[in-house]
Amino acid sequence: MSSVLSSIFFFILTLGILITFHEFGHYWVARKLGVKVLRFSVGFGSPIWKKTGKDADQVEYVIAAIPLGGYVKMLDERETEVPQEDLHRSFNRQSLATRTAIVAAGPIFNFLLAIVVYWFVFMLGVNGLKPIVGGVAVDSIAERGGFQKEDEILKVGDRDVEAWGDAILAILDEALNQQFTSIQVKTLEGAIVDRKLELTGLTAQLEQSDVLSFTGLSVYRPKIPPEIGQIESGAPAYKAGMERGDLVLSADGETISDWGAWVDYVRAKPDEMIVVDVDRDGVVLTLNLTPELFSGKEGEYGRIGAGVTLPPKEEGNAYVINQQYGPIDAMQQALGKTWDVSVLTLRMLYNMVFGDISVKNLSGPISIAQYAGGSASIGLIPFLMFLAVVSISLGVLNLLPVPMLDGGHLMYYFVELVKGSPVSEQTEMLGQRIGIMLLVVLMVFAFYNDLSRVFG
Fold this sequence. Notes:
By secondary structure, the chain is α+β, with helices and mostly antiparallel strands. It is 44% helix and 23% strand. The strands form seven sheets. It has a four-stranded antiparallel sheet with strand order 6-5-7-8. The chain has a four-stranded antiparallel sheet with strand order 12-11-13-14. The protein is globular.
């Protein structure tokens, strides 16, 4: 129950942040360019909180009951009668450039939010596993490409990679080209060689498997002692009396040799009590621990809200990398990451429209809530990374040339630029109906996929 409430909370928090930034983009640019704003609303439906600004425009600020969007209402002759003295501040009276800037500002602010979040994250430092191959499945694409255990991936195509997250993103990007991809690796002996991955068909099977399972590669996971690190307040580990530094010896009488074995044991025991023996400063203690049931993208499993204590770097922790940079380098990394994720998102949407990627990859509110809760339960950095990705997705989605979205309005403005006059109201009304129909179909698919993942 607590995991469900946590997912709902972080889902609302995520949407609240993203919607606020998006609508603030419209609001800020509109006011800077002299357009009168009447209302700034986060959410739709009945207001649960509202306040009127104290400036001359008396903008109404609203938080509404349905947190699935928002809007900025501007003065517009097409919607209400406008006093003579305010005609010059009406949205519909503005130049094409002004209207374009106001509409484009929402998605642009989503990209700016992602850049700032990535910048902050890269300055704090992101821990990840080096892209070292743990194993190669028999008769797999990776085996046919010549991959060996403990190959360290250096480049995917012409892109340098430092961590497994970078490598997977780059492989997926290459897969959209439906071709062989060259992977530069450093072998266990230290030689730099090129391997090949034949990625044709990966995108068509994304709903069935992830990138690594498709290729036959696996992540090298060094054996780390099962020593408890950070513990979440109120989590099962906290309630059981676990403390940072506890070394797990056994669970239900079964010896726990490393952290991976401990994680596997906990995940297999949701809502089941585990009798755990731990070594605390040389004293063996017995604790009763009940992992909570958690639903994530991998299905349902147990979790206790405790992290691992990584070996210190001076002890030879050669498999973990910390991507941490100074302010200037962190900004360069943030810009590059935002660009890469934006392009990949757009290319995946394009391939989905033309049937090269299954619509089963669409995610709706349920999946987003699970991802939000799951990432937040791991820590601040994973949640911020998730927030940046969703912000980019929202920015890309809103730029699509679909009526009802910002991209639809920008499409109308492009037509206006070409023909020299605005699109007719009849055309806009037809576009709205088409846009609503497309968005409803999209939402139905997304909800269906969510429910299939939960109950399938």
